[in-house]
Amino acid sequence: MKPYIDLKGASGAVYRYKLAEDRDPRTTIAGNYLYVNAEGVVVFAGEANNLHDSTRGFSEAADKHGAEHLYIRLNVSGAARADELADLLAELSPAGNAAQAED
Fold this sequence. Notes:
Elements: E1 4-8, E2 14-19, E3 31-37, E4 42-48, H1 58-65, E5 67-74, H2 78-92, H3 95-102
Antiparallel strand pairs: 1-2, 2-5, 3-4, 3-5
């Protein structure tokens, strides 16, 4: 898998995410995260005050949506994280987020 991926949000802004080796973010900094399948499709997007929390839903996303990789983006500002997540969700509509909204 690529060490970095660039994703465009609905606004046209581009966000660069870094692959978390071994699905370990190796940081407690706040940020946004993505679960990506083997084909490079984002199956879930989220935000966390501590990126170690980004791994909590990975097993379920792997089982239900084929998640294989964790990508992270450091982003300390809560408002910026929320805006970025909303922008990406509007553009990508990941299956895992759609399923979560139905629950």
